[in-house]
Amino acid sequence: MPIMTNSLGLHFVALISILSAATVKGAEYDYYKYHPMEEIRNWMAQMVMDYPDVVTILDYGQTYEKRTISLLKIGLESEKRKKAIWMDCGIHAREWIAPAFCQYFVKQILQSYKTDTKIDTMMRNMDFYVTPVLNIDGYMYSWKDNTTRLWRKNRSPGPSGDCYGTDLNRNFDANWGTIGISFNCSSDIYCGSQPVSEPEAQAVTYFVGSRKDDILCFLTIHSYGQLLLVPYGHPNFTAPNYNELVNTAMHHCGHFL
Ligand SMILES: *[C@@H]1O[C@H](CO)[C@@H](O)[C@H](O)[C@H]1NC(C)=O
Ligand SMILES: *[C@@H]1O[C@H](CO)[C@@H](O)[C@H](O)[C@H]1NC(C)=O
Ligand SMILES: *[C@@H]1O[C@H](CO)[C@@H](O)[C@H](O)[C@H]1NC(C)=O
């Protein structure tokens, strides 16, 4: 499961060990299959009902097609201002296992915090902001039929109206339009007409930007390859804590080698 950060230069914390720490309980929701968007929305509401003391839903934006973008805020209430970990899944529509992972992760921490002191401590000291599906329009389009299954981008029309979609993780205002992108709207790696042109990227930028002093870690979950990527993804710039990022990543990947 690759865990990547974007280019915000935030500290990296690997969470993989939590997953193996928790026990799997039988539940009605099937965590071992892919779910269409409507079921994922219902599942989010169910999490709030099942764990009202730790889970709330926050709506923080709208997609191009005017669907509400929501996240689960997970953490115990605290008098003091809490730090937070951001995790988004499903920025690339066709990478279906990423939303499935986010849901599985949420289930695991919620099922185990009462018995696992490490996770309980995390829940007391931090909040998790988990967006199971960020690119909702694209995700739903990838479920439409077998001609759209491999759709990756969002669904906004390009400048000339004869092509669709911006590759949302290439739309952020971080070395925008420099490398690993295309300015051709028909391309799967089209970066948009300008930085943060897309409503989905705006929603994340605003939500994270307005809380940047509190956010310890920014994780974005993909499934295109078996890679763990760290900032900045640019040949000429290195994150100030690059060594820490790589060491942390290698330490946790070590569990799987
Ligand atoms: C796609 O779906 C159509 C209609 O259900 C079916 O006839 C066709 O064989 C499918 N194509 C592939 C490549 O699966
Ligand atoms: C844009 O990309 C599409 C699809 O890859 C390609 O067919 C087209 O020729 C490209 N246009 C230009 C101007 O490069
Ligand atoms: C990185 O620096 C080299 C040397 O100055 C330059 O030629 C290249 O264009 C830079 N790369 C990017 C993506 O800015």
TrEMBL record:
Signal peptide span: 1-26
Matches recorded under InterPro entries: CARBOXYPEPT_ZN_1, Peptidase_M14
PANTHER family in the record: CARBOXYPEPTIDASE O, PROTEASE FAMILY M14 CARBOXYPEPTIDASE A,B
SMART domains associated with the record: Zn_pept (SM00631)
GO cellular-component term (any): extracellular space
GO biological process: proteolysis
Location of the Peptidase M14 domain: 33-257
Taxonomic source organism: Oryzias sinensis
Matches recorded under SUPFAM superfamilies: Zn-dependent exopeptidases
Highest taxon above the source species: Eukaryota
Cofactor: Zn(2+)
Listed GO MF terms: metallocarboxypeptidase activity; zinc ion binding
Keywords noted in UniProt: Carboxypeptidase, Hydrolase, Metal-binding, Metalloprotease, Protease, Signal, Zinc
Family designation: Belongs to the peptidase M14 family.
Hydrolase recorded as keyword: yes
Name of the protein this chain belongs to: Carboxypeptidase O
